[in-house]
Predict the 3D structure of the following.
Amino acid sequence: MENEVDRLLTTYERGHLTRRELLAALGAVSVTGPSLSGQSRQASVLRARNFNHLSVNVSDLKRSAEFYQRLFGLGPALRSLTPPGSNTYGLDFNGELLSLRLSKERVGEISHFCFGVDNFDTKRDAAALRASGLARDVRESPEWGWLTLRDPDGITVQVADTKLTAECRQCPPPPI
C-alpha cells in the first residue's frame, strides 16, 4: 500500500492528477489494501493498519465541505479538529475522515496525511523511526496523540493510533 500511496502522491505533484482524483484514488487504496492489489508487504518500522485521514488546505470552508458532502456523502456535519486554533475541520467517513484546513496559503495543496498504527505509542514509535534512519526530524505530539515526520520529498506524514478521531471538545464549532 505504501508504494501505491507514494506513486499516487508523485503523480499528483507532477500535475497528472487533480486533487479530487487523488482523494478518490487514496480512498480506493485504503479499501483494497495490498492483499487485493497483489502487492506483498515488506518489512517495516511501523505497521500501518488504516489510512486515518488526509488534510487539504481550502480557501472557503463552507464551499469545500458542501462539495465533499454532496460528491461522496461525507459528513453529515463538519466538526472541529485538534489542536485548538488550527482552523482544521473534519468530515467523517467510515471511521476515517477528510480534514479541511482553512488557509490563505497553499490553497488546494495537501497539508498532510495520516496512517493509523496498532498499539501506537508516541515515544516508542518516534524512537523506532529515528533508529531506523528513515526519519531524523520526528516531532512528537503526545498531547494530541500523534507524531509527524517528512518523507524524502518533504511531504508531512502523521502517524497515530488507529482509533484517532482528532476530536476537539474545547474548540468552537466550525465557522459556517
